[in-house]
Amino acid sequence: MAIVLGLPIPDGYEIIFLLTLVLILVKLVMAIYLGVRLRKSKKEENPVAPIFMGSIMLVMILWSISRIFFAIFDFFLTKFDTNTYALFPNVWFWKFGALFASIGVILVLWIIDRKILGNKFKGIFAIIMLASMILETLWPVSTFADFQAASTVGLVGSLMALFIPILFFYIGIKTPGLRKTAFLLAVGIIIYTLGGGLVSAAIIDIFTGAGLTPDMVYLISTSMKIAGLLMITIGTTRFRF
Q1: Which long-range contacts (CB under 8 A, 24 or more apart) does 44-51 make?
Q2: Average pLDDT in the 167-180 region?
Q3: How confident is the model at residue 181 (pLDDT cuts 50, 70, 90)?
Q4: What domains can be seen in the chain, in order of their start residue?
Q5: Which residue, 24, 142, 148, 168, is most buried by CB atoms nearer than 10 A?
Q6: SS3 for 240?
Q7: Which residues contact 57 (CB under 8 A, 6 or more apart)?
Q8: Mean per-residue pLDDT over the chain, rounded
Q9: Are 52 and 116 in contact (CB under 8 A)?
């Protein structure tokens, strides 16, 4: 075990732990910044902009909380040992991490559909993701196979989040005045998502097989996530529907 900032971290994961802390900090800074801008935007006549900005601010806060739960699960409870994933209380830290990550996305999906697109899709994307989130949280887990099954259920719901950049591309195409802002939001979300995907088990093996160290892959992933968060934040402050 290595000691990082006074905390015991599994050997080989020191840099990854520090990058995780940086990402949590960036999300909290973005949330604070959006909160400050939200106070000013409430004076505007546009009723949708503050609602949308408030939802993204909440997403940043919830993603920070989610990442904290996942960090505790990874670095302190399981130490990346899959044999311990299904144990109590480990699995509940993972479930709460997934829960907090999903709540904000569901809210954004709902607001985009109801407030921006005039209930065009009847909230179906948010409803599917909500049902998946509830099922994943309540799914009984006592073995690693159960853990994988619950994770698969959550993944199905998470696919609904892919519609967010698609919806922003749609808004940009249909509304010329919002094109740059909508496209900025869409691209930011895609970059953030791709950054997260780099460190999935299947993808990271490809990069390490090509000669990159896990630390390098996580550094690229974190850089992409931060770039995506900045684009999302900037796009949110400019969004006036």
Answers
A1: 46/240, 46/241, 48/115, 48/116, 48/241, 49/239, 49/240, 49/241, 51/111, 51/115
A2: 90
A3: very high
A4: 2-238 (1.20.1070)
A5: 168
A6: coil
A7: 31, 34, 35, 38
A8: 90
A9: yes
